[in-house]
Amino acid sequence: MLPIVSLTLFLPLIGALYLMYLRNATADKIHKIAIITSALTLLGSLIMWIRGVSDTGFAQIEQIDWMPSIGAAYRVGVDGISLPLVLLTTFLFLLTFIFSSNVRKQPRTFVVLMLILETAAIGTFTSLDAILFYVFFEVSLVSMYFMIAGWGHEDRQRAALMFFIYTLLGSLPLLLAILGLYLGGDVHTFDMRIWIENPPLEGTAAMLALIAMLFTFAVKIPAFPFHTWLPAAHVQAPAAGSVILAGVMLKFGTYGLVRFSLQMTPDAFREAGIAVLIFGIIAAIYGAFAALAQSDLKRLIAYTSINHMGYIIVGVAIAAITLDPEIRAIALDGSVLQMVSHGLVTGALFFLVGMLQDRAHTRDMAQFGGLLKTTPMLAWFFIVAAFASLGLPGLAHFPAEFQIFLATLREAPWAIIVILGIVITAGLYLKAINQVFLGEVNEKWNTLPDLDKRELLTLSPLLVFIVVLGIAPSWVLAVIHKTTIALAL
Amino acid sequence: MGNDLALMIPEIIVALTAVAALSAEMLHRPRAAYIASICGLALAIVFTFSLVGENAIAFSGTFRIDPLSVWAKLVLLPTTILSLFLVRSELAGSDREGTAYVLVIMTTLASLLLAGVGDSMILVLGILLSSLASFALVAYPRDDAATEASMKFFVFASVTASVMLFGLTYWFGGTGSTLLSELSILEKSPVLAAIGFVAVVIGLGYKIALVPFHFWAPDAYQGAPISVAAYLSVAPKIGGVFAFAQIVRDLPVESGWQWIIAIVAVLTMTLGYLAALVQENIVRLLAYSSVAQAGYFLLGVIAFGPSETITLGYESLIIFAAAYAAMNLGAFAVVMQVGRTREMFKGIGKNAPLMAAAMVMFLISLAGIPPLAGFVGKFLLFGAAMDAGYTWLVVIAILNSVLSLAVYLRIIVPMYQQTDTHSCHALESSLLNSTWIKPVWLTGLFFTVLIGLAAQLLLGKL
Question: Of A76, A84, A309, B186, which alpha carbon lies 20 to 30 A from A331's?
Answer without folding.
Answer: A76
